[in-house]
Design goal:
With 120 residues, this protein is of the alpha+beta class. Helices cover 26% and strands 57% of the residues. The protein has three helices and six strands, in the order H-H-E-E-H-E-E-E-E. Helix 2 runs antiparallel to helix 3.
Length: 120
C-alpha cells in the first residue's frame, strides 16, 4: 500500500476515535508534533492512543472530510476538516476543527507527523 492509500484509509476509518483501530495504522515509534490554537503538543504512541479513547468518550461520532491529499514517495500531506456529533446532541453534526498534517511513513505505518489545527 502506498503512503496516499495509508493516509486515506486512516482518516476515512474511525481510527481517530478508536484506539484499537488507530494502533493498526501507527508505527510503534510514532511522534506527532502538533501546533494547535491552544499551543504546541509533542505526542508519542501512548499519548495518541489515549487521545483516541478520549475522543470516543467525548463525542457520539465523528467524520473526516479530506480536502487535499498529496503524496511523494513515503511523505503524505492531508488537509481535512473534522466533523463531530456530540453525545448531548447526536442528531446535529458540527465542525470541530480544520487540520493540515504532513506524515512520514515507515514500514507502511504513520511514523512522523507535523500537524497544525484551528478550531472552527
Amino acid at each position: 500500500m502506498n503512503a496516499k492509500e495509508v493516509a486515506k484509509n486512516f482518516y476515512q476509518s474511525d481510527a481517530l476515535r478508536n484506539s484499537e483501530l488507530m494502533d493498526t495504522f501507527i508505527h510503534p515509534d510514532i511522534t506527532l508534533e502538533w501546533n494547535s490554537s491552544k499551543g504546541f503538543l509533542l505526542l508519542n504512541r501512548k499519548e495518541l492512543l489515549k487521545l483516541g479513547d478520549e475522543l470516543k468518550k467525548a463525542y457520539h461520532s465523528s467524520r473526516v472530510e479530506i480536502n487535499h491529499l498529496l503524496a511523494d514517495e513515503n511523505i503524505v500531506t492531508v488537509r481535512y476538516t473534522h466533523h463531530i456529533k456530540t453525545i448531548e446532541n447526536p442528531g446535529e453534526e458540527m465542525v470541530l476543527a480544520h487540520f493540515i498534517v504532513i506524515w512520514e511513513l515507515k514500514d507502511d505505518k504513520l511514523y512522523r507527523g507535523y500537524q497544525m489545527s484551528q478550531l472552527s
